[in-house]
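Support reply, case 0932

Customer input (verbatim):
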Amino acid sequence: MALLEIKDLHVSFPTDDGLVKAVRGVSFSVDEGKTLGIVGESGSGKSVSTQTILGLTRGAELSGQALFRGSDLLTMTQRELEQVRGRQIAMIFQDPLSSLHPYYRVGWQIMEMIRAHDRSVSKKMARSRAIDLLRLVGIPQPNVRVDDFPHQFSGGMRQRAMIAMAMALNPSLLIADEPTTALDVTVQAQVLRVIKRLQEEFGTAVIIITHDLGVVAEIADDVLVMYAGAVMESGERDQIFYEHHHPYTEGLLRSLPAYGDDRARLNPISGQPPSLINLPSGCKFHPRCPYAFDRCYREEPPLTPVSGEADHKSSCWLPHEPAEREQMRQQVLGERAAS
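Our regenerated output:
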């Protein structure tokens, strides 16, 4: 059994303008000790999917299941969720400066995290644990920096402090929401190394949410590609990078900058993501897809296995066999050029 299994998750938010369908029928699973990367453009439903399972999307209309070790997180009471959050499932948010309280010292906040779940731990023991955690994530002079305020830490150090806080109770699952955003490349690499080292040491499963495919290539075992609140493609990392099927996945990969002799103009995906209130008919990606044909405008494709591989799935009407798919793509491109 998977550590976490999401089944047909739907999340909508009623607004004055209409119903925002933020997540539409998302399903995925995470095994113990493994890393799942969730990628997609802003507004694709990545963060909402994971925040919902921890009860952080109040006011939303929910359906589906979120089974954590067999228990449905979506049906838990607030008190039951409080026992899960932090202790069994921890989360690192995108902006550590807004996640850390500016009026309290970093060490005190880690100590409070520990003692909130176990009041039998003395302040002295909690402080010692906080220093050990800061040392573990690579904070220099942790016995001194433990008494610093968040503004005295650099961006990378604040992110590492958040990782230390998240790992304080050795959770089974760590959710990292854009953990490397706004950090320079060197600091990004340091943060990713910290997450990987902690995962190896504690056997923690990780869900990493990002728009950076370089981060996914570095750390993920499996990848989920989301667009307009739904899963476009899912599979193992190498399948997504080297055997991708969906045109949206192809577009994300083609938009990456190249290096060395392969440098060329960037190839962005044309157009904009659709409104989650007024979604287009058929495949939601068809207004931006270079290979869309008649069926794409009428019917939304289901998420089905690609070429018989059960762990590699795609939501696209293009043929699954590579030769047939390429023939269809060239036919569509030719017809468009002719018209």
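We compared this against your earlier run and they match. Two observations from our side: The chain has a mean pLDDT of 90. The first helix runs from residue 46 to 53. Please reopen the case if you see a mismatch on your end.
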